[in-house]
Design a protein that fits this description.
This protein is mostly helical. It is about 80% helix and about 0% strand. Helix 2 crosses helix 8, helix 3 packs antiparallel against helix 4 and helix 5 runs antiparallel to helix 11.
Length: about 425
């Protein structure tokens, strides 16, 4: 079940990083679009409800439609999916550019475009993640995940000020147009670089394996997760941690303002220090690669996140530097939690079902965000903002420590789930 290492390592590196670089440029364009639209909604309406609705429009496709998209990712050519998704997202942005340029844009237009862009992402993300495991040798997957975290760190630091600068000197439609160019940079390498396909897809294309229905594949992906105790346990743990920790970032502006009596500059410092932590953590993980048992590296990172969240909640009002330090810890530890976890999924999950598994995991984790905010908001108003930080961080650590004593979770990399019977190419032979 483990991905076989390529015969020529230099070949996989050249192909993978050619695609990865194009996708990195595309992320820059997407970040600028996100910033420009949020800023436009803020200036246009000044309504928290409008911003919350926009966020919901961007989350719904990942939550509701993501699992259905994952089944298609496992049935279709993944390179084609990535090309079509990138072009579709760019086309949606193009419509918005026209609306801004002609002065016809309305708030509901932005909602629709955010929904369509997120729908494209629901196909693109699992296609890219599942393609990575087929292009990169297993021993390098954790390092690649660390590199992805570095990219996210740079984005969190530089995308907002870059977006603010561009908005100040260019009209909104010109800022959005950058996304069209970065999408082209993402698609161009995909036109020339081949991506290996899962065994079942290749066997079906050759007529040596039976074809199955879409609904059969959808059910098969769900059962694959549920019947693998280790994977199912990790997914439930990830959902719980997302529920506990998502409000920490959403409540951060209130924590800075109400508890530390700070303003926008102080909030910017906290977010920048977090980004620095992510970058340094990503560089460290890329260089080191983590423990041989990736799950141990992951759990160390989760415990570090819990410590950072608790420190944020306990930092005295007169010790703003401690809040900065706690957020650096958060950013640094986040890399060691997320990077190895993705590498575990990419190396242990059968290639034929990775699209479905990644979509289910993403949908479950994303669904926790609005749910936790609905609960954390009233609780924080009632008991104080610090209470959620202390409670969430503590439960995070205790849950992770408890998971250390669950063999199915600790041995997830060794006790892999077999390829689903209908995915076995030999069936049609």
């Amino acid at each position: 079940m483990e991905n076989p290492p390529p015969s020529a390592p230099e070949r996989w590196a050249a192909k993978f990083f050619t695609i990865w670089t194009g996708q990195a440029f595309s992320l820059v364009g997407s970040a600028l679009v996100q910033f420009a639209l949020v800023w436009w909604l803020t200036q246009k309406t000044g309504s928290a409800t409008i911003l919350a609705t926009a966020t919901l429009a961007a989350l719904l496709p990942q939550i509701v439609l993501g699992p259905f998209a994952g089944a298609l990712v496992d049935r279709w050519n993944r390179r084609t999916i990535m090309i079509v998704a990138d072009l579709s997202i760019a086309a949606a942005t193009g419509v918005l550019i026209f609306l801004f340029a002609t002065g016809r844009v309305q708030v509901w237009h932005v909602y629709v475009i955010l929904f369509l862009r997120s729908l494209g992402g629901a196909f693109h993300s699992p296609a890219m993640s599942s393609s990575t495991s087929l292009m990169v040798p297993n021993k390098h997957l954790t390092r690649i995940s660390g590199l992805n975290q570095v990219l996210q760190g740079f984005m969190s630091i530089f995308a907002p000020p870059l977006g603010a600068l561009l908005i100040s000197i260019l009209p909104t439609q010109s800022v959005l147009a950058i996304d069209i160019g970065t999408a082209a940079l993402a698609v161009l390498p995909l036109l020339f670089v081949s991506i290996p396909q899962p065994p079942r897809q290749m066997a079906q294309a050759n007529g040596t394996a039976q074809k199955t229905s879409y609904w059969h594949d959808l059910k098969e992906g769900f059962l694959y997760v549920v019947k693998w105790p280790g994977l199912f346990g990790v997914v439930l743990l990830a959902m719980l941690l997302n529920f506990l920790l998502s409000p920490a970032s959403s409540l951060l502006p209130l924590l800075v303002r109400q508890e530390f009596h700070g303003g926008a500059p102080q909030l910017a410092w906290v977010e920048s220090v977090f980004g620095v932590g992510v970058i340094l953590g990503g560089l460290a993980l890329s260089a080191w690669g983590g423990f041989k048992r990736r799950i141990i590296t992951c759990f160390c990172g989760i415990i570090g996140i819990g410590i950072g969240v608790i420190l944020s909640g306990l930092s005295p009002a007169g010790m703003f530097w401690l809040l900065l330090a706690s957020n650096f810890v958060l950013g640094f530890a986040q890399v060691f939690a997320n990077g190895p976890l993705m590498a575990i999924f990419q190396s242990a999950v059968a290639p034929d079902v990775q699209g479905r598994v990644f979509s289910l995991i993403g949908a479950g984790a994303t669904a926790m965000m609005p749910l936790s905010l609905l609960i954390a908001g009233p609780v924080s108003d009632w008991l104080g903002i610090r209470v959620w930080y202390i409670f969430g961080g503590t439960i995070c650590i205790l849950t992770t420590v408890a998971a250390l004593f669950i063999p199915a979770i600790m041995n997830i990399e060794q006790n892999r789930q077999p390829t689903p019977p209908s995915s076995d190419p030999a069936l049609g032979a």
